[in-house]
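Sequence only, no structure available. Ideas?
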Amino acid sequence: MSVASAALALSATACGGKKSSDSSSSSSSEKSAAIAYDIGGRGDQSFNDAAYAGLEKAEKDLKIKGAEAEPTEGESEADKVQRLTELARKGNNPVIGVGFAYAPAIKKVAEKFPKTTFGLIDDTSVTGPNIANLVFNEEQGSYLAGVAAAKASKTGTVGFIGGVEVPLIKKFEAGFTQGVKDTNPNAKVLSAYLTQPPDFTGFAKPDLGKAAAKGQLDGGADVVYAAAGLAGSGAIEATANAGKWAVGVDSDQYNQAGLAKYKDKILTSVTKDVQSAVYNLIKSVQDGTPQTGEVRYGLDKNGVGLADSNPEYKKMAEVIAAVEKAKADIIAKKITVKTAP
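Reply:
I predicted one. Tokens follow.
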């Protein structure tokens, strides 16, 4: 899930990431790649951490130097432009903006550095000969989560929590709701958004996610799916503490160390292969054939999916069968998943 970095962002120290926005510089002979994080930064157990995993893999497999840049609190568009310019000027190639909020800045900076490839995750509004738009069919993975939630629910009421009400996150809601309703037409879906643009703190504040989840649990939900970045960890905490099922997002949150205390109640997670998208772009540049234009990751190529790490999930034969059938039907185009509620 792209989490927009247009407003409040946690410091690198708070989220466990690297502190400086120029954590690495490259010499003229050393190949390097850089990622600029979205709100929440590295350590969000979700979207940004998935991007970092791709950079980390590239460092190991391709023997390159990796640079990371964190967002700052209350930053302006000019701050993003400066961050990307600094990364490009130091010779990093590619330079990847993690999240749709980087679109305007990448448009400006890419024109100034035509020999540098810029990756833009979760946005296709900005294009250029040296811009790769790395996008995903989030609605498809969310549909599978809806199927699983409807099957696992005992109350017939499930919840969806979006970090900020923007078109991207509404894709998650649309797919999830459709999956629930296609599986159980009588099911009830409680939906809530933590903040409205231009307030993007709904992606960064776990307390907001916790409060929203408690509200839905009080309303009878026994499965809660949060697409809310770092705030989603609060929703997982509240749901797990209530003994109900949580559904994670972006990364397989069952395996995230920061959520280990709640893992037993993380039924599954909608995965989004940001790691491979980042790695593949870096590798394409190193191979001399840089990706450009739209590079889409869907269910058919495992670009999105549903995790099955929880042993309790693996015991749910009826849930697994329903999810697998839905996956096959989506890939075969028997099911068209909506991108808006």
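The radius of gyration is 19 Å.
Hope that gets you unstuck.
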